[in-house]
Specification:
Beta-Lactamase; disordered C terminus; 5-stranded antiparallel beta sheet; 257 residues; alpha+beta; Cro/C1-type_HTH; 46% helix; MLTR_LBD
Length: 257
Amino acid sequence: MTATFAALRKSRRVSQLELSLRAGVSQRHLSCIETGRSRAGRETLVALLDALGASLEERNQALLAAGYAPAHAERALDAPEMAPVRAALEQLIHAGGSAPALVLDGDYHVVMANAGVARLLDLLGLPGEAMLSQPMNLLRAVFAPGGLRGYCVNEAEMCGEMWARASREAEHLPRLRALLDELRPTLQPWPAVETGNLPVLSFGLRAADGTTLSFFSALTSFGTPLDITLASLKVEHLFPADEGTRRALAGGDTACG
């Protein structure tokens, strides 16, 4: 348990003294726990993990390393008991009408997408339904050579923010960190961009006919999940930012460029 917990604390850049104050555990006792001279009780360990803001997966790993049963299940999204979750996700991604919406797991795999996503890909000149019928990772789709970032009107702003968000999440997700390490050599750093005062990320995509489709992005996640799979899921809606984009997605005239 010692190496696992000490690594977790250091990854959060929290000193033993700061953690002891947060969790109400003496620094001496915390030092003994990390060096293996003392075994943390389950309640103490949970308090320390709470103080570190550990993810559900990290909590399970720390509990297992200390000899305790894991606290959180990890059910597959297609498991029978997850049917209410799947129904809720379906409702979320279809609630916006023709607005593109997709469900991503912690590694940015697309696990659900609505017809609006296929329609958007078609407008870009890509085979939407064919792409979505295959396993798809959003980070690969955007950042791999020849990827969707090439369609961005404001690539530095959109891709810089998307990469920064994924990098923050990857600090605690080894598989995601490995994916970013794989993609990074093919990318150039994006210059800092003034994003203005909007509370959402806005961006434009070049359609196949040369017009611009304008969107703003909004993310939704489950607030108090008790399952590792559920904790990793996020729903991303791409809402049309102008009437032309709205018509294009609905099958009418394309947006004005």
